[in-house]
Structures are given as structure tokens and as C-alpha cells.
User: Which sequence fits this backbone?
């Protein structure tokens, strides 16, 4: 696990100098504290920060091929590199190191850009071809590892985070109002946008070829939900169990101490149970708890750890999380407001005290319909099919507008949301379920300049292309696909990458191994969500591996008691930043609206916890990194 950054200057542009490139690399020291590598030659400058996991003794980067035509910098792990190495040796390739980095480089020499589709793992890498004067950038299939770039027609800057690009003194970014609008909708900035107009994310499963001719973005992988109808339940269950063991097994490759996150839920327990079955040492687990019992999963995590003979390590998180707001804004380096970033930061801190690599259970909900909102979407679709259009239009629509919004209830349970969703198309209804700031809230919040800059932008444009791609699929498969392409990559995986890398910890996600995901996508939708129970088939596959009480207990989200914290320890930090006269957001937002939401929350007449957290995190980002509207 590492961090990469660089500059490519095309044509007659001024070549990069070594100090400029070194400064870019220094901003991501936390991603790779073990080693630094800098290479500047002609139009290219490459910076690498290394966290040594594989090929510890010989893995320095940038790495060059034998004739120094190609150079690579790489962030991630390739789990099939030994098989690829043997295949390349049979083709006549020779290796000077035992690292997976050199395998990527030799594979590129052998197969060119098509080599990316042969890699199994999580990765973001850059390959410079000095003969063709091209820069090849690639990001893994699911987007586990991040990769940003900025191209102005002459200079391409890139990095594992935004910070390396921002570190270039010649770069002058401006705020992207549409990205801000989408952030307030989803609480994260969806790809391909970043919070800056001039910087973009390479989408998951894509490569980018940069040359003097410009940019060539190409997709090399996509996930298709095609059920294998002729497979029996027993065959499917056995295939899933085998795929899980194989995926976890290949993720155990490491030359340094390795452990796992454990919440006591199904997914993390499945990973820890598989690890325990495949290793002869106690698994080192890390868990987080809360003093508020409604949010505390520690008793479940302890029980699972005991069942597997794991060595468990724990920490209690409380509202002193306010102390790390500046650190969080530094590491996420664009607005991000999934509040589970707080426990993820702390569980990564606990893990790093004993191990350098951790396995996580992320991806189980997306693969097997584990989110409660998916059950509600299924119900809505059933109701929607039975209601005449006239009833939906003339009866439910007015009822939805008139029904008071019950802010104190969980979002998918609100009657107003249900009534509204039944008047919408299935696609628009799911968007309505997923969004946080509604159009009415945005109209009240946006100041004149921001309102004009956003115009009639519709944040549904983030999800719409993936709904369009999945037309004709089972309704459940469609929303799984949309989640995998949006929420998973830009919320869940972003959260884990930044929180873990803040502590120089590598996190691997075996449930997002692309072969395992393809197995899951081949399973019938009605075996994933059955009788109102999500993960039905996954639970059957885990019988005998995971304790029964884990498989049957209600799901708890990895969340924090924000509602209470904003009326307690987070009250002062919010008032001294978001409500301050010199607040960064004051030039963009209607402060009277923000104050009204704050008063309503303090009185207990509304629960605006996610809205307030989004504004708080935006303010902290703005004070550290903010740029104005053009």
C-alpha cells in the first residue's frame, strides 16, 4: 500500500523540477512512511511513498524495466502476481525483484493497456513510456484505491489524493458548484467530479492514457447481474462458500503482521471466520464501541472473537471525536460527511498498533442486498405495480405534499418518503431514498451566487446512467448495481481508504474481490432478498462457519450518535465554526436557514443530524482547502 503522484508536461510546456515533484509526494507521506522515490526526466515527474507489504527488500519505486523505457509507480496489492509472473517468465520475461510491482510493469510490456484486465487486486498505478511519451493511469475494478487527475491541455497532474495536485504552486483550483450540490445530496462527491472544477477522479474500472494528443479514458471492466438459473440452491450455496474461502485466502498474502476489523456483524464475522479456518495463528481483530448502548456492537464483536479464538483489541469512541475534525478534513481533502468516518478512523488506529494490514467485511451489503433501504424499495415496487397511475397522481401526490415530515424516524421508515416514492418512477424513488438535502432544502440553503452557479442541475444525473445501463434487470439487481457504482466507491471505499491511510494501515476487502463479486452477481435476486430478509443466500452459505446468533440478530449500522452529540459535545464546535461570522460557508449559504435548522435541532423539534454534520465537515474542509466560485 502506497501513495503516488506526478506531473506530465506535454508539448512546449515547462518541464517539472525535482523540488516541485518532491513537494507533491511529501503531502502523502502518511500513505507510505517506509520509503520515498522521486524520478524527474524531461516531461515527466514521478513521486512515490511506500508502505512495504510485499517484496519488502526489493520494492523501491519508481521501478524501471531493463532498458529503462518504462517506469511505474504503484499503490495497492496484486493477489495473482505469482501466477502472472510464471506466465511472463514462460514468455521470456526476466525479473530482478520479487515484488508485484514488477509484474505489473512486465505485464504492460507484454500486453499493453489490456494487461490491466489480467490483474486481480486493488490498485492505482501510473506507467510512463519514454519512447512514446505517454502516461498510462489505471484504477482497480471496484475503486478500492483512489486516483485523481487534472488536465489543462498541456499539463497532467495526478495523485492518490487531492493534496499532491494542490501542492503544485502553479495550480489554481476553483470550487465546482455542481460537485457541492451533489455532495449535499449524497454526503460525498460522486465520481467523476471532485470538489474542484479542474480535478477529476478516474472512475472505477477505467484507465486513462495521457499524451500530447490529449486524454483517452477507457472502461475495462463492468459487473453484470446474470443469474445462473440452472444452478440448484445447494450448488449455489456451496459455490458461494467456496468463493468466499478462496477470496479471503488470496487476501492473506503478506510479509508483515495482518489482522481484521470485527464489528460482530455478518460480513466482518464471515471474513474473520474464514481467516481463522485458513491460518494456524489467532486472528488479530480490532473493534470499536460506544457508551450509548443503541450504537454499541462490542458485545457482539467479543462473542465472535471468542468463537474463533481471536485476539481482540477494542476502543470506546465518544464525542471527543470533535477533537479530530481538523485531522479528518485534512485526510479526506474534499467534503465528506458519512459520519461512520469517525469510528473507522479509530478502528484503524487500534489496528495499526499491532498490524500493518487489515481485512474488512465491506461489500457484503452491496453484493447480497443487506441494506434495509433495499427491502423498502422492493416493497415500494410491489405496491407501485398494484396502484393505478391515477391513484398515484391524484391521491398519493397531494398526500405526500401535505404529510408532515417525521424527522425523528429512520429515513426509509418515514411515511412522507413512502408516499412520495410511490408517486415517482422506481429510479427516481430510489434516488429520493438515497438523498439527504432535498431540492426544497437546497433552495432555502443556497445563497444567490451558488443558486445561480448550480442552475437547474439535477443530482439524479449521478445515478441515472447506471439505471439506464441496467434496464431489463431484476429491480433488486438494478439498485445493487447503482450502489456498487456510486455509493460503494465514493462513500464506503473512500471512507475506509482515507481513515486507514491516516494511520498508514492497509485495508483489504475480500468481499470486493472481482471474482467473488461476479459469483454473487450470478445468484438469483430472490435468493438474496427473500421473505423480507436480506443476505438470505449468504447466511445459508455461512451456516457452520459463523455463529448462528450472528446470522439471526438484527443488523446494526456502523454509525455514531450524532443526534445526541450535536446537543452536547459537538454543540460548541459547530457554533464556533459553521455559525461564526467569518464562516467559509457564509459566502455560499443563507446563514438564517442554517441557524433555523440548528435551533430546531437543539429544541428537539427536528433531527437534522446528517444535515448539520455535512455542513460542519464542509466548513472544516473550506477553512483548510477551500476555493471560491469562479
Assistant:
Amino acid at each position: 500500500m502506497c501513495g503516488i503522484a506526478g506531473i506530465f508536461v506535454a508539448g512546449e510546456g515547462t518541464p517539472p523540477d525535482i523540488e516541485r515533484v518532491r513537494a507533491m509526494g511529501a503531502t502523502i507521506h502518511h500513505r507510505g512512511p517506509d520509503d520515498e522515490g522521486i524520478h524527474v526526466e524531461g516531461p515527466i515527474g514521478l513521486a512515490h511513498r511506500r508502505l512495504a507489504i510485499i517484496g519488502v527488500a526489493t520494492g523501491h519505486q519508481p521501478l524501471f524495466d531493463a532498458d529503462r523505457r518504462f517506469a511505474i509507480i504503484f499503490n495497492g496489492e496484486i493477489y495473482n502476481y505469482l501466477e502472472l509472473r510464471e506466465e511472463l517468465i514462460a514468455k521470456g520475461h526476466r525479473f530482478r525483484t520479487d515484488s508485484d510491482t514488477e509484474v505489473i510493469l512486465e505485464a504492460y510490456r507484454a500486453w499493453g493497456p489490456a494487461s490491466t484486465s489480467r490483474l486481480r487486486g486493488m490498485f492505482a498505478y501510473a506507467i510512463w513510456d519514454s519512447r512514446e511519451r505517454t502516461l498510462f493511469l489505471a484504477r482497480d475494478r471496484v475503486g478500492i484505491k483512489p486516483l485523481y487527475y487534472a488536465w489543462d491541455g498541456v499539463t497532467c497532474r495526478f495523485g492518490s489524493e487531492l493534496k499532491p495536485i494542490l501542492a503544485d504552486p502553479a495550480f489554481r483550483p476553483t470550487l465546482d458548484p455542481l460537485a457541492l450540490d451533489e455532495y449535499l445530496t449524497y454526503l460525498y462527491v460522486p465520481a467523476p467530479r471532485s470538489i474542484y472544477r479542474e480535478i477529476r477522479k478516474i472512475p472505477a474500472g477505467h484507465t486513462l492514457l495521457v499524451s500530447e494528443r490529449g486524454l483517452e479514458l477507457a472502461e475495462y471492466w463492468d459487473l453484470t447481474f446474470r443469474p445462473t438459473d440452472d444452478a440448484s440452491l445447494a450448488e449455489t450455496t456451496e459455490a458461494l462458500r467456496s468463493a468466499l474461502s478462496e477470496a479471503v485466502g488470496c487476501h492473506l498474502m503478506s510479509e508483515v503482521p495482518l489482522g481484521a476489523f470485527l464489528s460482530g456483524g455478518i460480513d466482518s464475522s464471515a471474513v474473520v471466520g474464514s481467516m481463522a479456518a485458513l491460518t494456524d495463528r489467532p486472528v488479530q481483530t480490532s473493534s470499536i464501541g460506544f457508551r450509548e448502548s443503541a450504537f454499541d456492537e462490542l458485545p457482539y464483536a467479543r462473542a465472535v472473537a471468542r468463537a474463533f479464538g481471536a485476539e481482540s483489541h477494542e476502543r470506546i469512541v465518544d464525542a471527543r471525536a470533535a477533537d479530530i475534525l481538523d485531522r479528518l478534513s485534512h485526510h479526506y481533502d474534499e467534503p465528506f460527511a458519512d459520519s461512520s468516518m469517525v469510528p473507522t478512523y479509530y478502528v484503524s488506529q487500534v489496528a495499526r498498533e499491532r498490524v500493518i494490514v487489515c481485512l474488512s467485511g465491506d461489500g457484503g451489503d452491496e453484493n447480497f442486498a443487506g441494506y434495509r433501504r433495499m427491502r423498502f424499495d422492493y416493497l415500494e415496487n410491489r405496491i407501485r405495480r398494484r396502484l393505478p397511475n391515477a391513484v398515484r397522481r391524484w391521491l398519493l401526490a397531494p398526500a405526500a405534499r401535505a404529510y408532515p415530515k417525521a424527522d425523528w424516524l429512520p429515513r426509509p421508515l418515514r411515511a412522507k418518503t413512502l408516499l412520495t416514492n410511490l408517486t415517482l418512477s422506481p429510479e427516481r424513488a430510489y434516488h429520493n431514498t438515497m438523498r439527504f438535502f432535498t431540492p426544497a432544502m437546497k433552495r432555502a440553503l443556497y445563497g444567490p451566487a451558488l443558486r445561480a452557479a448550480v442552475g437547474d442541475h439535477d443530482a439524479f444525473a449521478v445515478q441515472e446512467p447506471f439505471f439506464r445501463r441496467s434496464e431489463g434487470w431484476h429491480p433488486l439487481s438494478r439498485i445493487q448495481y447503482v450502489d456498487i457504482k456510486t455509493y460503494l466507491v465514493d462513500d464506503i471505499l473512500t471512507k475506509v481508504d482515507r481513515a486507514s491511510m491516516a494511520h498508514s494501515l492497509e485495508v483489504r476487502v475480500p468481499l470486493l474481490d472481482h471474482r467473488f463479486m461476479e459469483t454473487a452477481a450470478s445468484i438469483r435476486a430472490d435468493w438474496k432478498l427473500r421473505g423480507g430478509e436480506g443476505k438470505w443466500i449468504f447466511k445459508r452459505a455461512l451456516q457452520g462457519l459463523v455463529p448462528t446468533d450472528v446470522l439471526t440478530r438484527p443488523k446494526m449500522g456502523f454509525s455514531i450518535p450524532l443526534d445526541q452529540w450535536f446537543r452536547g459535545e459537538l454543540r460548541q464546535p459547530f457554533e464556533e465554526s459553521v455559525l461564526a461570522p467569518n464562516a467559509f460557508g457564509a459566502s455560499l449559504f443563507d446563514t438564517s436557514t442554517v441557524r433555523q435548522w440548528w435551533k430546531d435541532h437543539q429544541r428537539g423539534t427536528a433531527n437534522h443530524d446528517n444535515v448539520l454534520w455535512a455542513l460542519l465537515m464542509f466548513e472544516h474542509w473550506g477553512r483548510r482547502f477551500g476555493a471560491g466560485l469562479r
